[in-house]
Structures are given as structure tokens and as C-alpha cells.
Predict the structure.
Amino acid sequence: MTLIQLEYIIAVDTYRSFVAAAKKCFVTQPTLSMQIQKLEESIGARIFDRSKQPVVPTDVGVEIIRQARVALMESRKINEIVQLKKGDLEGELRIGVIPTIAPYLLPRVLSGFMQKFPKLQLQIWEYTTEKIIHELKAGLLDCGILSTPVYDAALAERPMFYEPFVAYVASSSDLFQKREVTSEDILADKLWLLTEGHCMRGQVLNICQRKRSMEPEGTFEYNTGSVETLKRMVDVNSGSTILPELSIADFDEDQLCRIRYFQSPEPVREISMVTTHNYLKKQAIDALEKEIIASVPKKFKSKKKKDVVGFD
Amino acid sequence: MTLIQLEYIIAVDTYRSFVAAAKKCFVTQPTLSMQIQKLEESIGARIFDRSKQPVVPTDVGVEIIRQARVALMESRKINEIVQLKKGDLEGELRIGVIPTIAPYLLPRVLSGFMQKFPKLQLQIWEYTTEKIIHELKAGLLDCGILSTPVYDAALAERPMFYEPFVAYVASSSDLFQKREVTSEDILADKLWLLTEGHCMRGQVLNICQRKRSMEPEGTFEYNTGSVETLKRMVDVNSGSTILPELSIADFDEDQLCRIRYFQSPEPVREISMVTTHNYLKKQAIDALEKEIIASVPKKFKSKKKKDVVGFD
DNA sequence: GTCATGTTATCGATAAAATCGATGTAAAGA
DNA sequence: TCTTTACATCGATTTTATCGATAACATGAC
């Protein structure tokens, strides 16, 4: 058994194809096939059922692959130990961030973080929650920054802060007259929503206590994945929307006028650093986590007197 | 990095010598040296300080080796998964047992256990507690059966039963007249003791509340490592000794006459299955554990109304 | 200091392996 | 049925691991 063979079976499991796996491993398909055959022979068990298309792991193969991931992970930690001692993390850090956090949070932390680890190649991927979870499990991402809980036992989530939602209302709206708003107010108003697939859409609907199934009535049907677009819709048209508080950091005075905070307990979303349980690049990820926690307003850090909103 | 390289550095760490490690790995010393050099080069750190004699790991080397043990362990579990699925454990199981347990416990369980795992090569090593702990940590033993607690964070102990101590008294002794004995009685009598290094010696001294430092007065100085010898000494000469209850199982009537049980709470020793935390051959070891628990008298299984005696 | 001894590093040769490109075979889709 | 896609097989080639011999080095005895 060699570590390379373990990498090969993990690649095949990930891509469900010998050809694709070979490409990702930078070897030819016969090489990969041969090595996997040798591994199967040496342990005395078939790992993949090649009669199915696409290939699937056998029963015992599933467990072997799970254990192979663990073994490979532990072997890679040896390199991390060295880098840690040298004090200079190298390699790449692949971060998945949901689109309703990324543009507002990352600019606050990335420059500082990159200065601390100059040799680290940062890769940011803006994905939906679902996609981030999938890629984390497949080992294609190192960590995810997303709204939790995600209720997945394979993942470890470490809450970093609780970001309040705020209402953004057109001056033509009735809500504009109020100093604070409640979820009932929102319900009555016309509401710009993110398109399906964004966890924040679910959270906003939960705030308004609208069921996902029943299409909210007073909602403009304009499918956008961008919080920025929601804001502009309110600016240019009318109605209201709900924004995460970090997104209003660089609003001008005119725009701030249209912000309405929620009555206590204000609705918030829990933002966590999510990894697999036995994760690599711990040093870098833990540092990023600290950097993020330090970068958000103090009042975000406690969830007391707040209403943590789920998205399911 | 290859698994073989990890094996090599672990061997060098274990034997503190390239030559000895090479021998144990069944390769020549240049081969082992080369591979370790390649590993050091690939991770970019020196693992061993060869200027010292015997060789010692560097600071970072210590951590690398610790992690290498983990990685190798996890990779070996892959083979166990296969064997587990086949339902037939192969390979060898190296068991360390202290001499005051081995001859009385093992005959009760080994034949049954070997029938269940016919392909398993059993290796029994009679060692002192100290030696078993050392070999477990070095990975030279798979599990140990010994008296606990041993207070070693690197090891996991799972108590299996609580074995009472009984007194064995010559008919010429005053104690012979009593139906039950107490630790005070023993203190007054002449006592045959095991030689230094046996944990049971410490336990017996603790029962009598004698300090280790002060050499017990009424003790015959005959250094033996065998419980059987203690018994014979009492048989042939006089005085008394303390035996573990399992050792009296095949006593004849005459010998049973000389047994005196302790007054409640009777002194007992805790006998545990000891492994490292992340141990291999789990399947076999767990089965052995069950076999042992099933083989001892029911009354051994609870520690209620008993006085668990340490040996330090 | 010198010598004997034991330990690790280095070297060239050789055996073992991993990999490649070409090709064969079997299954899935048009 | 034909085409396409995917995995297995084969021989050639490159790469790697290992060996035996030897050099370099450290340690302890004298």
C-alpha cells in the first residue's frame, strides 16, 4: 500500500471515473488503473465496481475510501507540522464563501491575512451553502464561511459572529416613517428577495414567517443572487428588502436614511467557519478565523437578546 | 513522502540507531539512510540529529514522528477493515501480560479465543507493568493485560474485572485459626513477598499499609517473581502470603484449607485491557476482552464493597 | 594523541516499480 | 447497428528503491 494508491482511489471516488481521476492526478488512465488494481490485490478486496457506469465503490470500498481519506489527511499533517515550525505557511488555502457574506466580509480581512501569510495562495470561491458543503466533503475546499447551523455531522462549525439583519426601505414605503421595524411590518410591505438557492432567502422568509412553499404575495419577482441588486431595486423602485448589516458599512448618508433596525430581539444570522472534523491547514484556518472575529463590530459577537434565524 | 519512509523514521525513533532500525525493517542501512534523507528533503526539515550518539530526533522531528505514527496507524486500519468484512482476522496479536495474571487467566480464555480467530497468530509476552507500557507505546505490543490504573495519558485502559486478594497461611500460623483476616492480621504475620518490579508486590504492601521504603520486618527475603513460589514457600515453610484469587482455582482441598478471605471490603486489584488510544486490531482485542470478562467469576465484575488497591 | 570500534553517508550497479502510449474489450447511447 | 466512452491489458521506458562496498565520522579505550 502506498500513499499514492490511496490518493488514486480517493480521486476515483470523488470523480467517479478512472479517466477523470487520472487527469486530476496528472497520470495516464492505465497508470491509475494499474495502481488501484495493485492496491486491491494487496489488501485482498475489490474497492470499485467497474461493471456499473459510472463506477461506484463496493460496500467495503466505501469504508476503505473513508479510511484512506483519514490516513492521507494524517500524512499531510506532517508537512503542516514542518511549515508550522518554520512559521511560514505555504501552499494554497481554498475558501468557500456564500455570496451574501463574501463581498462585505472578505475585504475587511484578506489584506491583513495575506500579509501574515505571504506565501499562502488564497483561493476564494463564491458558492451556495449546498455547494460549499459538498466541496468541503470532497476535499476540494479547505474551509467554508457560511451561515449555520447546517446540520451535517460530517462537518465542524465554529460560530464566529452573529450578524443582524436590517430592513432597507424606500422612502415611498409606509415603513419609512417608523424608527424600528418588526417582522410583521415586513410582511405587510412589498419585499425584494434573493433567488432560490441562497440561504439568506430562507432566512428572510423565516423572519417574515412566510412559508417557502407559498410564494410570498407582496414580492417582486426579480431573481437576483446579489444583495447589491436588492438594494438598488429599493433605491430605484420602491418596496423594501432585508440586508445583512455588514453590507451597509459603506453606505452614504442618503442610503443610511433608509435603513431601519429591527426591534429587539433583532433577527441575526450565525456566521461560522466550517471545516471537516479532521481538517488540514489548521494553522491558517484558525488564523483566518481570528482575523475575521477581530474584524467585525463587537456587538456581533454575542447572541444574547438576538433571534438566530435558520434558513430551512 | 511514502508510508515506507514513515516506517523507517519510526523504526529509527524506536531503536535510536539507523543500523538497528534497518535490521528491523529488513533493509540495509544505506537504504534506510537514503530514504530518510529523501523524506527530510521532501518535507524540508531535518528529522534526526545524527551528530549525537545515539541519534535523537530534532525538535520538529519529535512531532513529525508522532504524526507519522498516527498516519501509519490509520493506513493500517484499511487492512483491518478488509479483514473485518471477511470476518476472519489474520496476522499476529501481540499481548503483554503481567506474570501474576498470565498463568491463571490465559488458560481460561486462549483456547476459546483461538478457535474464534484461527488465522490469528497469538504472541504472549510475560512482562512487568513498566515493560508492557513501554512496548505498547513503541508499538511492539498490541495490547496489555495488567493491573490498573497506570496513570499514563498515552494509554487507554478498559477495566475488565476486580480480582480479590486472599491470604494463604501456613497451618502453623496464628492466622490459621481465624475465619476471615484483615490487613492488620497480615501486618503481624511473617509475609512472603514478590521481588521488586512486580506491581502485585506494591499492592500487597499497600494492603498491609507498609511503606515501600521501610523494608517490611516480618518478611522473608526470598526474591521470587512467581506467585507459585510464594505459595510453595508457605506450604513447605511457614508464615503467610497473599495470592490473587484466580491463582487458587485449581487448589486441592488441603490447600484450600489454608486460604483465608479478607473481611469486607476485601482488597481487590483492577485488571484492565490496556491499549494506546488509537489502537489497531480493535476487532481482535475487543473480542479477547469480552472472552476474558466472560471467563471470570461473576462476583469479580463489580467493584462495589471492594477496596481497589493501587501499587504505587 | 592514537587506535579500535561502531555508526552513518556516499557511490555505482542492479533489481523493482511506476508510468507511458498503443491497443483491446466491454458497456452505454444514438 | 454503429458510435462513443470507459476501463483493462501489454510491452517499452523511465524512475525509484535497494544492495554491497567503502568512505567519513564519532566514541571510548589506552
User: Anything to note?
Assistant: Chain A touches chain B through 25 residues (CB under 8 Å). The domain at 3-84 of chain A is CATH 1.10.10.10 (Arc Repressor Mutant, subunit A). DSSP finds eleven helices and 13 strands in chain A. The longest strand of chain A covers residues 155-169.
